[in-house]
Write a structure and sequence with these properties.
heterodimer; A: about 450 residues; alpha+beta; 5-stranded mixed beta sheet; two-stranded antiparallel ribbon; 15 strands; B: about 1200 residues; alpha/beta; Rossmann fold; Barwin-like endoglucanases; 7-stranded mixed beta sheet; 39 strands
Chain lengths: ~450, ~1200
Amino acid sequence: MKVMAQLAMVMNLDKCIGCHTCSVTCKQAWTNRAGTEYVWFNNVETRPGQGYPRTYEDQRRWKGGWELTRRGRLRLRSGGRLHRLLTIFANPLMPSIQDYYEPWTYDYDRLFTAPAQDDVPVARPRSLITGKETKITWSANWDDNLAGAPELAAGDPVLRKVSDKVRLEFERAFMFYLPRICEHCLNPSCVAACPSGAMYKRSEDGIVLVDQDRCRGWRMCVTGCPYKKVYFNHRTGKAEKCTFCYPRVEVGMPTVCSETCVGRLRYIGLVLYDVDRVGEAAATPDPKDLYEAQKGVFLDPHDPEVIAAARAEGIPEDWLEAARRSPVYRLIFDFGVALPLHPEFRTMPMVWYIPPLSPVVDALVETGHDGEDAGNLFGAIDALRIPVEYLAELFTAGDVEPVRAVLRRLAAMRSYMRRINLGEEPDESIAQAVGMTGERIQEMYRLLAIAAYEERY
Amino acid sequence: MAGMDGPVSEALLRLGRHLRPGETGPDLRTIHKSGGRDGDVFYRDRWSHDKVVRSTHGVNCTGSCSWKVYVKDGIITWETQQTDYPSVGADRPGYEPRGCPRGAAFSWYTYSPTRVRFPYARGVLVEMYREAKARLGDPVAAWAEITTDPDKRRRYQSQRGKGGLVRVSWDEAVEIIAAAHVHTIKTYGPDRVAGFSPIPAMSMVSHAVGARFISLIGGTMLSFYDWYADLPVASPQVFGDQTDVPESADWWDAAYLILWGSNVPVTRTPDAHYLAEARYRGQKVVVMSPDYSDATKFADEWLAPHPGTDGALAMAMGHVILKEFFVDRQVPRFVSYVKRYTDLPFLVRLDERGDAVTPGKFLTAADLGHEGREAAFKTVLIDGATGEPVVPNGSLGFRFAPDGEGRWNLDLGGVDPLLTLYGTGDAEHVEVALPRFDGAEPGVLRRGVPARRIAGHLVTTVYDLVLAQYGVARPGLPGEWPAGYDDPAVPYTPAWQERITSVPAARAVRIAREFADNAERSGGRSMIILGAGTNHWFHSDTIYRAFLALVTLTGCQGVNGGGWAHYVGQEKCRPITGWAQLAFGLDWSRPPRQMIGTAFWYLHTDQWRYDTFGADVVASPLGRGLFAGKATADLLAQSARLGWMPSYPTFDRNPLDLADEAAAAGEEPGAYVARKVAAGELGFACENPDAPENWPRVLTIWRANLLGSSAKGNEYFLRHLLGTDGAVRAAEAGPEHRPTSVTWADEAPRGKLDLLLSLDFRMTSTTLFSDIVLPAATWYEKHDLSSTDMHPFVHAFTPAIDPPWQTRTDFAAFHAIAKRFGELAREHLGVRTDLVAVPLLHDTPDELATPHGAVRDWRETGETPVPGRDFPKIVAVERDYGAVAEKMAALGPLLDRLGATTKGITYQVGPEIERLARANGTVRHGVAAGRPALTRDVHMCEAILTLSGTTNGRLAAQGFAALARRTGTDFAGLADEHRRITFADTQARPVPVITSPEWSGSETGGRRYSAFTINVEHRKPWHTLTGRQSFYLDHDWIQEAGEALPVYRPPLNMGAMFGEPAPGGTAPVNGSAEGVVVRYLTPHSKWSIHSEYQDNLLMLTLSRGGPTIWMSPADAAKAGIRDNDWVEAVNRNGVVVARAVVSHRMPEGTVYMYHAQERVVDVPRSETSGRRGGIHNSLTRLLVKPTHLIGGYAQLSFAFNYLGPTGNQRDEITVIRRRAQEVAY
């Protein structure tokens, strides 16, 4: 056992309002400069939708992340290292600027400088790449709130997998938001793909960074990352990515995206893991087992053996204390409601998500599928508008059971707390039905509903 | 251990790892590094700054979020939210962090290419001005010449909005502005000067300083809340109070929450987390929205009533609640609540009119033979114990009369009010006629009520009328009643509403039942959050009354976690008393001129000329013909001449000259004016609004973007008010629809305004059309105060940098204007007397002007009107025009003598004035010598806080003591008497306010604010006729409209009124291409706050980069439109060019053009008009509802932004078609 510490994040999608404040504060702090106009370290996608860059989740096309060889060994999907070395000057597996979007501005100065003329002055759009007038056909968030969905959602790689379960019509409409930053993976394919050794994972906290001095701009990391969260700065010719705001977290402040998250849905915490077991876990044969496999890599911060081993690795006491208080650990283990994003990419991502509840489908309402009615708790989950199959393709490689289990726990929490809210006797059977106790439900409730600033980070 | 790739690459890697620092993982996958990270210094540098400053955004969103503004090397870099809000309790979520993506993108403006850096003016105007001034030697003479020479006038007016702005100096800009004001006051009168600046709460000083200038010179401040159509008229009607609502932390207390036409995640972004979190506490959430909106994500259930039909659903829910919780079974808490806190037990006279009996006026003490003026305002109920009529405390008749002292309260003594006469011994059954509006033509319902004769009057209770209206049958009563919930034919059954709304009847029943059941089980913690989706309709007051019935019947109003939560442009300037004194110059002269915005624009943009229908289009089939043969403009004029609503410009004469005339005649001004008007020798300006002497001449807009945002009927504004090109396609009314009491000019004027002045920091549609644009400081460049009703804190704006380039704060700009104005005015105006016509005001004895709401028009009776009774009050005000700048800069002496009055309570502020003199210092010379200084913005901040009860506990306690004398009830302990909030406190951290009678809820003891908790818990009456929450309204005009009781009224029939095609089909545009006819809604946008941020590059990048219209796939298919196609939307009001967003979250038959997408960014020329495609409001226009013009009667009396006609715009339809995809700009 070799213990390492990892900064991790959980986002509760059930609380996300899709406001993009995280994206804006992140961009203003880090990427509102020449060369990174199109770069959003943090972005928010409406699902169903194509994402940013478009269809990035389709690894048959983009070849990001890892795959297993026939012998069960991990291999970068973009090809072996020799192959990548040979294609280093002509990497065809890069999203083009159009797959992100072609950034633009407007000739605002026309509003001041227009001479006396026969009509109202207007600022026209102008490409920030070519400097020429442009028609806007794609943006950083083009399909927000199902915009254009009848045509565009077909391009959602996740939707394609469950298209038999989903009909894009008014009566069955559903949507939710997926905020994304770099996953700061335990098994980062971007790091492995870098021919210059410029990408690295910080030993003390696991943050994945690009050494700006060493980066040679080969962009293999862009290809290697299945989440497409490494970007190429076309001004400096170097790769840049989410830094987990290390200048902030080093001094005890949460990341910008977390602190400014007005939905209060982000949790930051330290997780201890056994670095020796990462590779094996990432090579777990059945993708549906990867979620449990990754949990198996994490270490119990209360376990005396783990604590001793951590001390031996030089992990300081206050870090161990932080690991014990980690809301991330609690959400993954104590409450069992957080799931990894696309575990099938085999990178062991470290930004996890609580899947969202949603309104029941109208057609099923009259059958009594009431989310708070304990008797109907489980029936209600399958009547929700967001198909569990869709969520499962995001979080559990298609295995619907873990998703159902999370949604049941959330529903049970609501049902259990409703009785208390109305001054009625708590019903322990509700907690037991989802493998929890009333006390544990109340702890979860406190963390999900009330947790103040200092409890979330 | 699972290996990597293959042996060759592993060998390469093993070699490579010796060549670079850092530790390679044992399986060669990863590199771990600790140290040697010089390459990352860039990010550390970027995260370094010199200071962090607390400020906020003075934008009209009610967020009032405190922000950290980061500054490095004297440059603002970015902003993040403050997280230091005081706790709201350990067992509930707090307010951190507050803010949204719009706010986070604000600093982009500071250095953006759309920043207004210098003063600008229309080139052609400046040239003419310079030439005239050089020749005439006097700025005022120069301005007079340009604006009165028809040719010169046309030259610059017709150039408005068409480029040609030039830089000018501050001195020259201010001189032209001052000259325009002086000339206008001298020639036409001070009431021809107007100012428009909304929402004081969002930056109180910036608002107040400009309003103070306008008010001190006798100009008119225009209302905004009613104009925005955000003002719910039902609030004064039902509560006698305007929009008092819970803070968002109180949503947490609700156990059942309906979001009705409110898209909280978008429009109340920083508060939305309470929605998500309260669900975890077991709150059930129901969303009513025509589209699958952002808020729907948080719903347990989503109901999608057709747009504008929400009232039908609410009425049906009321039917269920009345049936199941009042008639079939009685919930003790509900019954005791409605008996004490609503008008349901009060008696209403039944009028026997031919073959029909109709509900008439409230039975009052006067009907019982009581003497005195107030007797007609004391309503009557029956004591259940004795069966005898009694006059309970608390009605309006007790509020102002000397003998009402100690009796204006909700104590019932030993009386148990009788709710219904049904089943009482001497009740007879009477069939009453009630109007219905659900069909193509209005109809009549006949339903029985139990009735009794008292003092010769046939009477029943409001409750019995309500049951009849809702169609809840009781055995033995005559009339036509629904067969059951599943009867679709008659109002107001669940099956009936299904036909109208499309919401399945069974679901309506279940939601109603759950809502009431939850209220019963939780003690009133069922809440409805109401939004613009239900509030921006012509008949929104009826929709809202149907909602309010739900929360009052179930005893939820005045309970934490219950009641209405109306969040539509609402604001809460918590330190309201101090702000009002400064803003309206009440410390120097009273009264100020305050105008209902909608009526002002309706008249002066000539939209009234395009009303191709009669005012009786809204009338009840049971009406008496009060509106017959009249146009809406006639009713507006009637409202003005009866003193109901304000009307500025008031008379067809300069009020300064009028004062001189009265003095010359040796008559008291009021008597003189009334006599002259009665004799036909003096006219109201609103009776001839197109006559040049009655035009508004100077308009100043700051903190607002009228022409890019709120101007309903935008194209009419451009054509008639400004005199430039507008895309109006409508025809004017034919002779049969023209007003009879308002003069019709053969040709409508074009170009009424002499000067349009705007102050802004960015280029907007308003600045583009302005004659002069002054460069404003942003919110990160000045001191100010912010508050909201969404949270209970007051907090500060603090400058992060000094105003850059030539920008100035609003404070500095208006002081500069005032100074130059004074210099010119001293010579041209001197000291004059101004006659101000003041309407009958709410929360004053003026409410007693119209007994029973029975309208007597002196013009029709031939009587001479009496100011203050059936005519505006006429008040002489001395104006020392040369001293305006000095007065602006000091707190005047009137406060010492008259105190400061808010909602009927007067605060004596002697000690406060002394304190301000010490804190701010005093002025040494001039008219203000010895007075506390207001020479800096921070002085005004301090004065606002010192002069308000919410921020000065001494005043709050004083106010409660005064209130207790009137009510005779106890408010002790509510106000924290010894707490004072200073400006420095608000700069340090957001500060919770003090409970004060300025508002109706209590924060005492760290409690969450909810409206009317003081009324419920301390038995303080509502400010209504009965002193209770009102189901029944008995004013003549309300009854004429058929709206005495809650009622369903559908959206307006635009086909019948204007000849527009019917929604749902297709229609030709330009005589050729077919377009699809759809309902056109303008809900609030995710990417802007009104027009603010819609031009912000970050927001444009996160959306679609320019104006869009959202539509359903079915509608798109009908017109051959694909996603992102250029489309044109056309109706009689104008044209919009935008790109289509096709989405299945939109319902068929309805399109959204999200609010305030203006014409500055990526708007090409229209194929239809050949001109720049318009803004969202190019397709809308004003439609004034006559009942909003009522005044002088109980709660239906005017106060600024309290009551007035709404600028509603949701009943509109349009034709949309695909246009050529090659666009020209």
